[in-house]
Write a structure and sequence with these properties.
By secondary structure, the chain is α/β, with parallel strands linked by helices. The strands form 6 sheets. Strands 1, 2, 10, 11, 12, 13 and 20 form a 7-stranded mixed β-sheet that branches. Strands 7-6-8-9 form a 4-stranded parallel β-sheet, with helices on both faces. Strands 4-3-5 form a 3-stranded antiparallel β-sheet, with no helix packed on it. The longest helix is centred in the last third of the chain and has 22 residues. The mean pLDDT is 94. It binds flavin-adenine dinucleotide. The site of flavin-adenine dinucleotide has 36 residues, from α1, β2 and α11.
Length: 422
């Protein structure tokens, strides 16, 4: 098997790169071991919500200079301001072409309502995610009886204290009893699989209509809309806006985003090898010529370019033992202090240093191996270091923008060398 580019990892970064390359006629494969961070994410995408010194960011463009001063090795700074803005705009277009509706714009963060009813600055959110300030005086927050991954009272309390009267009502819907009987099965994704069934829609609408009361809008945990048009059917039947708040993982909005991106990549001719693990590479004249995987054993997957999008510790893109932090596939250089005591802070809520560990790259996002970089290997997304996706609120932005940046380098290099795309 011979490819123009093989991508390691099918998270947000890997899929974004794969879509751009496939849209430009490249023959691409994604090898992916398992679930990605998207399966656990809110479904909202962050670009830059705060600076390292904690100052909140409203307009990411205006904050890029301060970011460069405070975090010179941040992936946005390596890429440069122009690229950040161009690829943020391109990310929005890529999502739209994939059929993923999002609200928001890279020039201005919005405040999404979190699962605790608080507000958090974000770049793009699915249209069903409520945003502050809420345009209603009264909302009804729905609790699903027996569902522990969403705290409707907390949400209602926070909304009420910010000026919107919220009351909680409980959905008991008997069709959920089979799941309810087994608490470990009573999770958002399983509930969505029941609530999205057309044959259950009438009962759901009838009960929600009774619960709505005087609410001008309804807020539900994101336990529907994995497939199909359940949400618009509810809005139509109830005649009020219906909004969804993400729950504890696994996350319906994140899984839906992953599924649509994956379908888009495949519809462009991209090949996904799920459940397979890249184990090593064959080097020829300073370039990777082939990858080896667990399932393909000694049969090499030949390729012109490789993109490492294997994620951070969460997805196994980085690993650590007692003394070292390492990148397990290629043994790439990782930015992490040697002194283990400085890896974490005792205060659980403080920014954690280990979140900023990642592979070292040059300004073209090419990682180093024993001080040298491999010409046709790029690293993107959360396997990179020098940023904190939680404190700085930039996880999705780093993933998408670095993916587009690396894909652009590959396409430009192919043009310069007049390589046929296929
Ligand atoms: C739990 C969680 C929730 C988050 N929520 C949000 C959010 O709501 N909004 C936001 O903006 N950011 C969020 N983030 C930040 C997040 O890191 C980025 O948004 C982004 O999704 C990361 O994408 P990625 O593709 O770089 O890595 P990942 O999503 O981690 O994907 C890496 C992929 O590589 C695969 N892989 C690893 N090693 C191998 C191998 N050897 N061979 C083959 N495949 C391999 C993994 O199986 C996985 O599929 C969250 C992060 C985490 C951990």
């Amino acid at each position: 098997m011979k490819f123009d580019t093989i991508i390691i990892g099918s998270g947000l970064a890997g899929l974004t790169a794969g879509i751009k390359l496939a849209e430009n006629g490249q023959r691409c494969a994604i090898v992916s071991r398992g679930q990605s961070a998207l399966h656990f994410s809110s479904g909202s995408l962050d670009l830059l919500s705060a600076l390292p010194d904690g100052s909140p960011v409203q307009e990411p463009e205006a904050a890029l200079e301060s970011l460069a001063e405070q975090a010179p090795q941040h992936p946005y700074n390596l890429m440069g301001k122009e690229s950040v803005l161009a690829f943020a705009a391109e990310s929005e277009q890529l999502l739209a072409r994939a059929g993923i509706p999002m609200t928001g714009h890279y020039r201005q963060n919005h405040l999404r309502i979190t699962p605790l009813g608080k507000q958090r600055a974000s770049w793009l959110s699915p249209p069903e995610v409520p945003q502050a300030p809420l345009p209603w005086q009264k909302v009804t927050v729905i609790n699903i009886a027996g569902f522990l991954d969403f705290q409707a009272e907390l949400v209602a309390g926070s909304l009420s204290s910010s000026g919107c009267a919220a009351h909680v009502a409980e959905l008991t819907l008997p069709v959920l009893d089979v799941l309810r009987n087994n608490p470990s099965e009573f999770r958002a994704v399983n509930i969505a699989r029941v609530l999205d069934l057309p044959e259950n829609r009438r009962a759901l609408i009838d009960e929600l209509r009774l619960l709505l009361g005087r609410g001008e809008a309804m807020i539900l945990p994101a336990c529907l809309g994995l497939e199909g048009d359940t949400l618009s059917a509810l809005e139509h039947a109830l005649n009020v806006p219906v909004k969804l708040l993400p729950t504890l993982p696994p996350s319906v909005p994140g899984m839906r985003l992953h599924a649509v991106l994956r379908r888009r990549f495949q519809s462009l001719g991209g090949l996904i090898m799920p459940g397979d693990t890249v184990t090593g590479a064959q080097l020829e004249q300073g370039c990777i010529s082939a990858l080896f995987t667990k399932n393909h054993r000694e049969v090499p997957l030949r390729t012109r370019n490789v993109i490492l999008a294997s994620g951070s510790f969460f997805s196994g893109g980085l690993e650590a033992d007692r003394q070292h932090v390492f990148e397990p596939i290629f043994g790439l250089g990782v930015e992490a202090p040697e002194e283990r005591t400085s890896w974490s802070k005792a205060d659980f809520f403080a920014p954690q240093p280990w979140l900023q560990f990642g592979v070292k790259v040059n300004a073209r996002l090419q990682p180093f191996h024993q001080g040298e970089y491999t010409k046709n290997l790029y690293a993107i997304g959360s396997v990179l270091g020098s940023f904190d996706p939680i404190q700085q609120g930039c996880g999705a932005g780093v993933s998408m923008l670095t993916a587009l940046f690396a894909a652009d380098s590959i396409l430009t290099t192919a043009e310069v060398h007049h390589e046929p795309a296929r």
